[in-house]
TrEMBL record:
GO MF annotations, alphabetized: DNA binding; DNA-binding transcription factor activity
Record-annotated HTH gntR-type domain positions: 8-75
Cross-referenced PROSITE patterns: HTH_GNTR
UniProt keyword terms in alphabetical order: DNA-binding, Transcription, Transcription regulation
Bilayer-crossing regions: none
Keyword rRNA-binding assigned: no
Protein name: GntR family transcriptional regulator
Cytoplasm keyword on record: no
Coiled-coil region(s): none
Taxonomic placement: Bacteria, Pseudomonadati, Pseudomonadota, Alphaproteobacteria, Hyphomicrobiales
Length: 224
């Protein structure tokens, strides 16, 4: 997910909002993106909107249909598996670097991010689905904190793009994996505090692939 910058333009804000609306499912897979309704919804000019949609096409969240215009990128099981494999590759590499270089401040950031995620996971397990987006934001923040000590801005940017594509599939899922996912997050925290990158990589792989199978089995009807 893209964080708010101090000097965002109207176009930057609209880009971030449309991107997030695709990720969180408010704009559905394969939905036609008609310029006039979108222009009113996001309060931008048609010219700016076209620039945003072209940018989102480059990002992989929108498909340009030639003379037909734009639509939200479709979803498929094969694409999800490919995204997951790429996330594993990038995140395991970033974990190894981060665990080797992370200092006390990095550890404190990981603990703080985990605490927020843990609280929201308990609320989700109690059936409080109204916190669903906050929970996934906290999930993103925790995984970003884990790799935050890697020392590579490019790696963080690339990971963020792939994570957002993975997250999009998660938001199409009707249910939460519950105790299993929460336990994996706890194991990742323990591995981080021990600076045990090998253990973290094993947990992370199971965590991501478990999320893939859960997403495929529990995706909203019509989103296969």
């Amino acid at each position: 997910m893209i964080e708010v910058a101090k000097h965002d333009t109207i176009g930057d804000t609209a880009y971030r909002n449309i991107r997030n609306d695709i990720i969180f499912g408010r704009l559905k897979p394969s939905e036609r993106l008609r310029l006039e309704p979108l222009r009113r919804r996001y309060n931008v000019s048609v010219t700016t909107l076209r620039e945003i949609l072209n940018r989102l096409t480059s990002d992989g969240f929108v498909v340009a249909e030639g003379q037909k215009g734009f639509e939200v990128a479709p979803v498929s099981d094969s694409d999800l598996r490919e995204v997951a494999d790429l996330r594993i590759l990038l995140e395991c590499h970033a974990l190894e670097r981060s665990f080797a270089q992370g200092d006390l401040d990095w550890e404190a950031g990981v603990v703080a991010a985990y605490h927020k995620l843990h609280v929201l996971e308990k609320q989700m397990m109690a059936g409080e689905t109204s916190v669903r987006e906050n929970w996934k934001n906290a999930d993103w923040q925790f995984h970003r904190a884990l790799i935050g000590g890697c020392g590579s801005r490019r790696l963080m940017e690339l990971h963020g793009s792939v994570f957002d594509k993975y997250l999009r599939y998660q938001m199409l899922t009707l249910t939460f994996r519950g105790e299993k996912a929460a336990a994996e997050h706890r194991s990742l925290l323990d591995a981080a505090l021990a600076h045990d990158a090998a253990a973290a990589a094993r947990v992370l792989r199971d965590h991501i692939l478990g999320g893939v199978e859960h997403s495929i089995a529990n995706r909203e009807p019509g989103k296969k």
